[in-house]
Amino acid sequence: MEKKSYVVSESGVKVFSEYQDNITIDKDNPILKKKAEYPRERYTRGKVKGLSRLGSENSEDAKSWNLFRTLQLRSDMQKYYGLIRVQDNLQNLLFWGLDPETGEFDGVLKSILDEIEPPHLWKVQQTEPDVIVIGQKTVVFNECKLGKPGANIDAWNRKEPFTGKHELYKRRAQSFFRQLFIENFEGEARRFYQFMRNYIIGEHFASRLSKAFHLVAIASAQNKARSGLPHEEEFKTFCSYLFDSSRCHFLTWEQLAGGGHP
Q1: How many whole angstroms separate alpha carbon 145 and alpha carbon 138?
Q2: Are residues 35 and 132 in the same domain?
Q3: pTM of the model
């Protein structure tokens, strides 16, 4: 068996020299190569400088690919649908907006992103939903996080203050979020920044496809939020701000890997 080369970072995290060594299925798919070659997807300092983030043993992107691509190729997505108690059949999966069969960014999603996050304002990067599960009746956006076992991690938040462009999100948020969230937008929208973006974009994407929208948060049972709260508690707080949170679900990687019910 060929030995896999890796580097251990200053924080003790193993990062493979070749990201493919961290991938368990369809490891030569073009969208993985495209993802790995983005400059922002490479480490910029320390022992792991220049290596792809996909090669990290704590990469949620690699874990998302390994798990969801396996379910897709093995025609086993009912395992996932069962965990979130949704009755549907898979039509397609998108990873970071990219179709693994064509290698292209989804055209409908791109058109919605251009409306919500105009490219002249989002010059560096528009939102890239981790995994979008498109079924016959539903669209499920999966927001995935993974950290070093036992660590409290920055998961869903935005550290930097909002700028003028984020007023676009504040206006759109009024259709889905309670007034308390709008009144405390600078604090709470930054606290739940990734959830908020996924929810608003997801609702518009699903509506365009005439399907019902669901949001799923996925994290490890071995991690907590930086605040020390369990990720599930943080997610429940986010859901409390929504007019309708009945289509929001929380899962752990451990449940997905083992198939156990939440």
Answers
A1: 22
A2: no
A3: 0.95
Asked whether residue 110 falls in the same domain as residue 211, the answer is yes
In this structure, are 69 and 35 located in the same domain? no
Residue 188 neighbours by CB under 8 Å, 6+ apart? 180, 181, 241
DSSP string, the chain: -PPPPEEE-TTS-EEESSGGGG--SSTT-HHHHHHHHSGGGB--SSTTTT-BGGGBTT-HHHHHIIIIIHHHHTT-THHHHHHTT----EEEEEETTB-TTT-PBPHHHHHHHHHHS-TTTS-S-----SEEEEESSEEEEEEE---STT-EE--S---SPP-GGGHHHHHHHTTTB-HHHHHTIIIIIHHTHHHHHHHHHHHHHHHHTT-EEEEEEEE-TT-EETTS-BHHHHHHHHHHTBS--TTEEEEEHHHHHHT---
Q: What is the per-residue pLDDT across 198-224, written as a single tens digit (0 to 9) for each?
A: 999 999 999 999 999 999 999 999 999
Q: Are residues 52 and 94 part of one domain?
A: no
Domain that holds residue 15: 1-57
pLDDT digits (tens, 9 = 90+) for 59-85: 999 999 999 999 999 999 999 999 999
